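Example for tutorial group B:
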């Protein structure tokens, strides 16, 4: 008998979904306005930048636990990945697998992109004459 209650609940959910689809067909303009509110980021990756390079940054920030939610808890890997996806108009895909791909790289290539960023900052520091 408890199964009948679950079946009734499932039928109710399906009916609600069908109604939403009918409304989207009948009133496309009103429902589209709600979904289009988040603006696209104006930033894109240069052709030479790979997703694994971006994932180095995402993984580093995730492991540092320096990015937090309003409640002070460290951000989840998936939320950091989604933020970078929006920021650079990219699709990272399976962020957990890409994170693991970063972590399991050979020691000499583990943080190649981040090391390059460090070198760029050092060069700019030297070029401006800071000591």
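The residue assignment follows.
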């Amino acid at each position: 008998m408890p199964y009948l209650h679950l079946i009734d609940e499932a039928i109710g959910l399906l009916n609600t979904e069908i109604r939403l689809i009918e409304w989207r067909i009948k009133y496309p303009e009103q429902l589209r306005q709600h979904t289009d509110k988040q603006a696209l980021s104006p930033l894109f990756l240069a052709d030479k930048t790979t997703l694994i390079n971006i994932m180095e940054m995402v993984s580093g920030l995730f492991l540092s636990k320096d990015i937090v939610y309003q409640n002070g808890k460290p951000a989840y890997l998936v939320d950091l990945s989604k933020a970078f996806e929006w920021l650079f108009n990219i699709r990272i895909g399976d962020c957990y697998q890409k994170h693991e791909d970063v972590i399991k790289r050979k020691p000499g290539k583990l943080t190649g992109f981040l090391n390059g960023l460090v070198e760029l900052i050092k060069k700019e520091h030297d070029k401006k004459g800071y000591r």
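The chain has two domains: 1-37, 40-131. Compare this with the pattern of hydrophobic and polar residues in the output above.
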